[in-house]
Write a structure and sequence with these properties.
Length: about 180
């Protein structure tokens, strides 16, 4: 029996085989799959889809902490309970340290796994196109993170200054840009 992902991949293959527009958006493929009854939700499938959508929504929930940083609120951690692997979600504002430590390790592993796959994909593409200049991929993100922090710090500083100019009597605290 094919896994759910294999079934979905087969739908994409059939969509292309049917001569549909390609490249395509997932919305176009989904509309075709539902219309042609290749995608039909049963009770357990509907439950899994709802769970995925809940996970996606929880992963997109942010708040501003006391330092004005945009912080992800909900974090998943993988645990084993009664011999079964589960993914439990908790809120960073109330979660115990152990949960957050597992959640951060899980995110780090996902990032590393995605980087490894990008490296493999780039290598395969470069090998398949030897007459073209190779695509180079830098997987050291320190400069990217530093630039993002500087950019956010500059935006926060500018934003605070513009509010102060617009409302000179309002007290506005500005944060220094971190360059650590």
């Amino acid at each position: 029996m094919a896994t759910k992902n294999q079934q979905l991949q087969r739908i994409v293959t059939e969509y292309r085989r049917d001569g549909r527009q390609w490249p395509a958006t997932t919305k176009e493929i989904a509309k075709w799959a539902v219309t042609t009854r290749r995608y039909d939700l049963t009770g357990s499938t509907l439950e899994r889809q709802c769970a995925r959508e809940l996970a996606q929504a929880m992963g997109l929930e942010y708040f501003s902490d006391s330092h004005g940083r945009r912080v992800r609120a909900k974090h998943p951690a993988r645990i084993t309970k009664d011999g079964q692997q589960l993914v439990l979600w908790d809120d960073i504002r109330t979660a115990p340290r152990h949960h957050m430590q597992m959640a951060f390790q899980l995110r780090r592993r996902r990032i590393a796994s995605e980087c490894r796959q990008v490296k493999t994909d780039v290598g395969s593409y470069n090998d398949a196109h030897p007459d073209e200049m190779p695509i180079k991929m830098v997987l050291d993100f320190r400069r990217d993170v530093e630039e993002m922090e500087l950019s956010e710090g500059a935006y926060s500083l500018f934003s605070g200054l513009s509010r102060q100019i617009e409302h000179p009597t309002a007290a506005v605290s500005t944060q220094a840009v971190r360059t650590e």
